[in-house]
């Protein structure tokens, strides 16, 4: 469970740097889960 939280934190960090492309990546991950 902790690994999932760390992964989410990493995604949000990438999102801050990437912008809208990061959002697309997050939605793709959400679809995967």
From TrEMBL:
<protein>
    <submittedName>
        <fullName>Uncharacterized protein</fullName>
    </submittedName>
</protein>
